[in-house]
Structure formats: structure tokens, C-alpha cells
Write a structure and sequence with these properties.
single chain; alpha/beta; Arc Repressor Mutant, subunit A; Four Helix Bundle (Hemerythrin (Met), subunit A); six-stranded parallel β-sheet; three-stranded antiparallel β-sheet; 18 helices; 9 strands; 43% helix
Length: 435
């Protein structure tokens, strides 16, 4: 067997979507929605090994989720397929096979798990998100092959199932720690209690000063943490080379933080294990022996515009859904209005090259005091070009630009097997077109 790299566990992840979603929905509908629409947030929690410590602290060893499979009933849950496909899952359809609705999901999963034992990659750990007692024989077989196992347990899980696995992820811990409002930015942190501020689209209202783009920091911090674990501390002089791994770093003025030192300090607030040392010529990014207390979760949430309470009640939730489904920037209506106005002006000035449009759109936003990430500008310009928009016809009209981009987003949702209802289409019009 090929040995694992030091500090890393090779893991295979199998998700019984119907079982987990329905079990979560019976307890916390918001948590069920996060599980279905934001798999990246709880996958990151698993990768950091929180499932091995009861969710209270990061595990000693990171997980590499090399195999990811999700099994769902397409007749009921096909609208969630795109979220898992976007997170690099293989999605296996398990339609009902009997009049009683039995789908055979457990059999499909058991066969695939057994096949994974003979895979060319020797998996160290099998994570099974299901509380179906039928998996007990599978867990016993995995243990006989000296594999670690983890299952997601609800309140009625069979004792034989929990006894057969290495780690039991309690559903309450999973909801609070992996699916809590703060978990997307601070892995393992519990979310705020009911009644805390819900998701709000990011407001790009001009501000007198910039604080940086916190939305990119969780991903950067995770890669930086892993790099330091494997190769040791990174001197300040080598950090710019590291950051250039991220395409959106170019021309971003240190992700909007204006200096290397400010960016490094911001990363330490996202990952409590990171430290950047005292300022000086030879400071470096390293890992602490023990993590500091994480910063308050609201630091990293999208900022709610002052007019949020006046917007349609369902709009923030729909923006969140489409943001995670297709990657559209989670801007508020005013933010998109401003982008479309700038794009129309640039077309009127003769700019018809997509790369130039992206660069100039970001620059124009910056001139007004808005920290617009390059990937956000690139998504909008790419979407407009792919929509079939004719730059030679009415390109200088912001309304025409907005409607073309709106049509592109509607098609993207359909391609992700999440078509929008009539009510949702009306909200999308309010969001992107201002209708």
C-alpha cells in the first residue's frame, strides 16, 4: 500500500443525500438548505478533521477528499444536483424502484464502497454521511481492512452502526459546527443562534476607505495552512509568489488590503492557526502551536445594505442560492445597476474586448471607492459575452445590458437543473433588471 503523505489522510466521501437532507429538515430547515446548497462549507469542515474531535477543535491531520460521491433521488431532489457537481462530486441518480418509493440507494452505495477498497488509490478513511443501519456490515468490512470510518448519526441511529465506526458525527454537532452561519468562514466555529442576521447580498455602496475583500480569504488561508504544514514557514519575501497561485490576485492590490502585511494579518483572523510574526525585515507566515480564539463571524459575512429591510423578503435567500449554484457575485441590486451602467459607458467608448472590459470595469469601480474583486468583474463580462449580446446594437443602454445578463443567469440555472419558478423569475428581474 502506498503510504499517505505526512500530515494528510486520503479519504473517500459517500453521501446519502435523501437520508441526510430529510433528517436535517425535520430538525432545522435552514441547516438542511445549507447542506444541500453549500456542500463546500461542510466539506471544508471535514477536510480540517473537525469530525474526529466532536467539532470543538481542528483535527491533528487534514483530510484529502479524493473520492466524492452523492446519491440522490432525481424525482425529488434534482434541483440540488448542480450544487454538488460544482463541488466536484460524482452524482449518482437513485430513482424509486418500487411502488413504495424504495430506491436502492444503500445497495448502490455499499457496492461503490466495496469497489473503493480495491481502488488504485488506497483510501485511509471512508466518510459515510448516512444514518441507515443497513451500512453496519459495510463498516465492519472496512474495519477488517484496517480503514478508519465516520458516519453521520441522528437521534434514532442504531447502536450497532455507531459501534462499528471509528468516528460518529452527531447530527447536532454537524448542524452547529459544520452548517452554522459562521462555518463557511471560520471552520469549526458554531453559528449564531436563531434570530441572528441572515445572509444579505454584498453592498458595493462607495465607502471612504477599503478594508479588503474578505470573501476570498477562507480559500487562501486553507491553501496557505496546508502549504506551511507540508513545507514549513514561508518568509515574507516569498509570499507574493504564493499569492500569485490565485488568478484573482493579479491587479487586486493585495486582495484590496493595500499591502502584504495587512493581507497577512487579515489571513490570521480567518485561520486562528496562522501567525505572521512581528513586523520587520525577516517576518514570516507560520503555524501556531495552539489556535487563538477566532474573530467574530460577522467580520466575514456579506455586509447588509442599509435598505435591506425594504427589499423583497425572498430576494436575499434567492441571491444566496444562485450565488452558490452558478458563482454569480452576490451583489445587491444597486451594485449590479452600477456595473451595468459602467459597462454601457465602456461600450459607448468603443471597448469591445472582453479582457479590456473586465480590467476597466474593475478600475472604474475602484475609482468610486468600491473593492470589486477581479473574478466578480470577470464573471459579469464573461456572462454577457456568452449570452450572445450584440455589442453593435444598443450596447450603450444599461437596461439592454442588464436584460442580456439576466437571461444568461436564467439559462445557467436551467443548465444546473435548478430552473427558476415564476416567483423567482420576478425576484431575479428585481435583482438584476430593476423591474
Amino acid at each position: 500500500m502506498m503510504p499517505s503523505r505526512p500530515g494528510r489522510v486520503r479519504a473517500a466521501l459517500f453521501v446519502d443525500f435523501d437520508n441526510v437532507f430529510l433528517s436535517l429538515e425535520a430538525v432545522d430547515a435552514r441547516a438542511a438548505k445549507r447542506f444541500a446548497e453549500q456542500p463546500g462549507r461542510w466539506m471544508h469542515w471535514l477536510e480540517r478533521g473537525y469530525h474526529t474531535t466532536g467539532g470543538g477543535r481542528e483535527g491533528r491531520t487534514r483530510r484529502a477528499l479524493l473520492m466524492r460521491k452523492c446519491y440522490l433521488n432525481p424525482a425529488t431532489f434534482s434541483r440540488f444536483r448542480g450544487f454538488f457537481t460544482r463541488s466536484a462530486f460524482s452524482v449518482i441518480d437513485c430513482p424509486p424502484l418500487t411502488g413504495g418509493g424504495k430506491s436502492g440507494t444503500d445497495i448502490y452505495m455499499a457496492i461503490d464502497i466495496m469497489d473503493a477498497l480495491d481502488h488504485a488509490t488506497p483510501f485511509d478513511e471512508f466518510i459515510i454521511l448516512s444514518a441507515d443501519a443497513d451500512f453496519t456490515p459495510v463498516l465492519l468490512r472496512l474495519r477488517a481492512h484496517d480503514r478508519r470510518t465516520a458516519i453521520l448519526a441522528n437521534a434514532v441511529v442504531a447502536p450497532a452502526l455507531t459501534a462499528a465506526c471509528s468516528y460518529t458525527i452527531e447530527q447536532s454537532v454537524f448542524i452547529e459546527s459544520a452548517l452554522g452561519d459562521a462555518s463557511a468562514s471560520v471552520p469549526g466555529a458554531a453559528g449564531p443562534a436563531d434570530g441572528a442576521r441572515p445572509f444579505q447580498p454584498r453592498s458595493f455602496t462607495p465607502r471612504p476607505s477599503l478594508t479588503g475583500d474578505y470573501s476570498v480569504l477562507p480559500e487562501v488561508a486553507a491553501v496557505l495552512h496546508e502549504s506551511i504544514e507540508q513545507d514549513g514557514p514561508i518568509p515574507a519575501a516569498e509570499l507574493p509568489h504564493f499569492f500569485f497561485r490565485f488568478a484573482n490576485f493579479r491587479n487586486s492590490d493585495w486582495f484590496g488590503f493595500r499591502s502584504l502585511r495587512r493581507l497577512a494579518e487579515a489571513l490570521t483572523t480567518v485561520d486562528p492557526m496562522l501567525e505572521c510574526g512581528e513586523p520587520g525585515e525577516e517576518w514570516q507566515m507560520a503555524l501556531r502551536e495552539a489556535p487563538l480564539e477566532p474573530a467574530p463571524a460577522e467580520t466575514f459575512e456579506f455586509e447588509a445594505p442599509a435598505e435591506a429591510e425594504e427589499s423583497s423578503e425572498g430576494l436575499p435567500a434567492l441571491i444566496e442560492t444562485i450565488h452558490h449554484l452558478v458563482g454569480i457575485p452576490a451583489l445587491d441590486p444597486d451594485g449590479f445597476d452600477l456595473l451595468f451602467e459602467h459597462m454601457a459607458k465602456l461600450f459607448d467608448e468603443g471597448v469591445t474586448d472582453r479582457a479590456a472590459m473586465t480590467r476597466l470595469l474593475q478600475e472604474r469601480a475602484g475609482e468610486e471607492g468600491m473593492s470589486l474583486p477581479r473574478e466578480a468583474a470577470e464573471f459579469v463580462t464573461t456572462g454577457l459575452w456568452q449570452s450572445g449580446f450584440d455589442v453593435a446594437s444598443d450596447a450603450s443602454d444599461p437596461d439592454v445590458v442588464a436584460k442580456a445578463f439576466r437571461d444568461y443567469i436564467v439559462v445557467r440555472c436551467e443548465q444546473a437543473q435548478r430552473p427558476l419558478s415564476a416567483e423567482e423569475l420576478a425576484l431575479v428581474d428585481e435583482w438584476l433588471v430593476g423591474a
